[in-house]
Structures are given as structure tokens and as C-alpha cells.
Design goal:
GO biological process, one term: substituted mannan metabolic process
Family: Belongs to the glycosyl hydrolase 26 family.
Number of helices: 11
CATH class: Alpha Beta
Protein name: GH26 domain-containing protein
Largest sheet: 8 strands, parallel, barrel
CATH superfamily: Glycosidases
Helix content: 25-40%
Number of strands: 10
GO molecular function, one term: mannan endo-1,4-beta-mannosidase activity
Distance between the termini: 38 Å
Structural class: alpha/beta
Shape: globular
InterPro entries: GH, GH26_dom, Glyco_hydro_26
Strand order of the largest sheet: 3-4-5-6-7-8-9-10
Length: about 375
């Protein structure tokens, strides 16, 4: 067992008009004030304002990954496909509930609408996952693009050396045209967690990865795709000895820097601030907005889940953090008893209440979306 955290030592345990209006004024923004770390660098992005997603002038967008049914241990340990587009309300909280709202009946949106209903607000960002050779956009992506939420499209990477050699150019160009055809701003998070040892067979090396990233971007440029913001996203843990920063393609190649930051199954209890510490220290040297694309509180924390989320809300109110995305899923769990890798708050009254507090804090509602009591 690794050393416990500080806390554990003391206690065991196209978009709508409003969205474009924000985007149009902040292609380059100065970081705002928040309750987190100190002054952040001036934030810049290569994304085209009003066409691709850019940071809010103040605060951070709030989003989520909400798979159908909440994600189950029988699913892939790492999501690579979006949920079924059937529109089933299987994640609405209880068998008798049905999500309401004008988008609930759209393909793939029932779980999202149910989550928003409990949260008491609409999401800024909805995440989807697609495999390297998968066709997209599917029903969920089209439904998100059809509304006033941002789409965060997480696309698995292929073999880096094959990409550089041009073996997948046709596939990449086809997907680039598909994203362009959506006609709405899209966050594109390609080949996330590239620093993991489990990814090395296809990534090969940091040099191979950065070359593949640049090749991909060049094809998107050739296809005149300008509605994409490129999100570079290793693991937060990769900044502790794995040299995740070596996979960074360069400021001219990246619009948002990101990290996946679950606390880690080898800790009894660990604050989000500790999981993010080395990543955020590295990020201070980049003039880029930060996205935390996968954060979640394990079910193993039991009654302390609400406390963890309230502390996370303080940590994330960092002037450089411009988007946070909750991982409301249990699909990384090895089996039904694995509570250390289960992050869904569905059915946990205290945890969903604390997450609702976070999501409705003005800092995480920069578009001033309507807020209800939730439930």
C-alpha cells in the first residue's frame, strides 16, 4: 500500500447564441480569480473563437461522462465506445423515474437528461468515447451538437508509427470531415492517457506520439476543420516519475492541457488536490487552459464522498482550470465488489448533493444556466 494522503494520516477511512457569445470574446483571456491556487499565466489558445471551443472568461465549464446504466464492471475497463443510442432511461436513478426535459428523447440523451435532472442544471460539456476505427458522430454526438452543450469527443489513438507513416490517412481524413460536418464547436481529446504503460505497445515512445499528434492535426488542417479544440490529456499520475510532460506536442499544437485524475485505487483516501498537484505544477509553465476530463470519488470512500467532493470544489476553483468533467461511471471496476474504481454518484444521496453543490457554484456555471433544486 502506498503512503496515505495527508487527510488519511489523521482519519482512516453550433452551439446556442449564449455559448457563442462567450466564445467570441475569449480567444485569448487572462485567467480569472478563484478559490484555488495562485495566479495562473495568461491563457491562450490556437482555436478559432466562435467556431471552436475556447475558455470562459471567468470560471470553468462543468461537464460529465454519463454512460447508460451508469457504467458496469462488465464493461470495458477503459471506455472506447459511446453508449447505445436507444435513448433508454436506464440511468435515470430508479426504475420508476424517467428523465424529463426537451432533450431526454433524443438519441443517447436519456442518461444525460436524467443526470442533469438530479444535478439541478444543464451540463456545459457532454463527453463521449469512440474507438480508433469507430465511425462517428453517432446519435449521442449529434444530439449534443444539436443543442447548446459542448461535445467532448474522446477518440482512442491508433499505432503512432503507422499513423506517421500514413497508413491511416484515409481514416483520419474521413473522421475529420465528419467532425467538420457537425458544424458545432467540439473538444477533441485524442489518444488520452498515452503515458500509461498499458498504452506503450501502440504509442511506442514520446517522440512517436508527438509525431503522430502533429500528423493528425495536419490532416485536419488539410480538411479545413476549424471547429475543433485539441485537448492533450495524459494521466495526472504520469507526472510522478513517468515523465508525462515528454509527450507534450508543443504550445502551437495544443489548445487545452488536460489530465485524468481519479484518486487511485491503491489509496485508502486521497484528496483531489494531491492527485493533481504535480500536474498543476507542470501546467503553470504553459499558457493554456486546463481541463480535468475524468475526475471522480470512489464508492469505497463511503460517507466521506461528500466531503471529498466539497474539497475538490475548492481545489478546482483554480484560475487556470477552465473545464471539469465528472466521470459518473463504474465501468473501470474489475467486478461488482470493486468499489475503489467505482465513481458513479447515482443512488448516493449525499454524494449527488455534494456534486450538485459543486456544479451549481457560480465558478462552475460561467454561462449562468438556470439552477433548480435537483432530485
Amino acid at each position: 500500500m502506498k503512503a496515505r494522503s495527508r487527510a488519511a494520516r489523521t482519519r482512516m477511512p453550433v452551439v446556442g447564441t449564449a455559448l457563442l457569445a462567450i466564445a467570441g470574446v475569449v480567444a485569448t483571456v487572462a485567467a480569472g480569480c478563484g478559490g484555488g491556487a495562485g495566479a495562473a499565466p495568461k491563457i491562450t489558445t490556437t482555436a478559432r473563437a466562435g467556431v471552436a471551443p475556447v475558455p470562459p472568461e471567468q470560471g470553468a465549464y462543468f461537464g460529465a461522462w454519463v454512460p447508460e446504466g451508469g457504467g458496469t464492471p462488465s464493461a470495458s475497463a477503459s471506455p472506447s465506445e459511446s453508449p447505445s443510442d436507444s435513448g433508454s432511461p436506464s440511468d435515470s436513478g430508479s426504475p420508476s423515474e424517467s428523465p424529463s426535459g426537451k432533450d431526454a428523447g433524443k438519441p443517447g440523451m436519456a442518461p444525460v437528461a436524467g443526470f442533469e435532472q438530479r444535478l439541478g442544471r444543464r451540463l456545459d460539456i457532454v463527453q463521449s468515447y469512440r474507438g480508433w476505427k469507430s465511425d462517428f458522430p453517432g446519435g449521442l454526438e449529434k444530439s449534443v451538437a444539436d443543442g447548446d452543450r459542448y461535445l467532448l469527443l474522446t477518440w482512442d489513438g491508433g499505432d503512432a508509427r503507422e499513423i506517421v507513416q500514413g497508413e491511416h490517412d484515409d481514416l483520419i481524413a474521413k473522421r475529420a470531415r465528419a467532425v467538420k460536418a457537425l458544424g458545432k464547436p467540439v473538444f477533441l481529446r485524442w489518444s488520452r492517457d498515452m503515458d500509461k504503460s498499458s498504452e506503450q505497445k501502440r504509442v511506442h515512445s514520446a517522440a512517436d506520439f508527438t509525431a503522430a499528434w502533429k500528423h493528425l492535426r495536419e490532416i485536419f488542417k488539410r480538411e479545413n476543420v476549424d471547429n475543433v479544440a485539441w485537448v492533450w490529456c495524459p494521466t495526472a499520475r504520469g507526472f510522478n516519475g513517468a515523465n508525462a510532460g515528454s509527450y507534450y506536442p508543443g504550445d502551437d499544437q495544443v489548445d487545452w492541457i488536460c489530465a485524468d485524475a481519479q484518486p487511485g485505487a491503491d489509496y485508502d483516501y486521497r484528496d483531489l488536490s494531491e492527485a493533481l498537484k504535480l500536474f498543476t505544477e507542470w501546467a503553470r509553465g504553459r499558457h493554456k487552459p486546463i481541463m480535468i476530463a475524468e475526475f471522480g470519488v470512489p464508492k469505497s470512500y463511503g460517507p466521506r464522498r461528500a466531503e471529498w467532493l466539497r474539497e475538490a470544489a475548492k481545489t478546482l476553483q483554480d484560475p487556470q482550470v477552465k473545464a471539469v468533467v465528472y466521470f459518473n461511471s463504474d465501468e473501470q471496476a474489475k467486478n461488482a465488489r470493486d468499489r475503489r474504481r467505482s465513481y458513479s454518484v447515482t443512488g448516493d444521496t449525499h454524494a449527488i448533493s455534494a456534486l450538485r453543490e459543486l456544479a451549481t457554484t457560480p465558478y462552475f456555471n460561467p454561462r449562468n444556466l438556470p439552477v433548480t433544486s435537483g432530485g
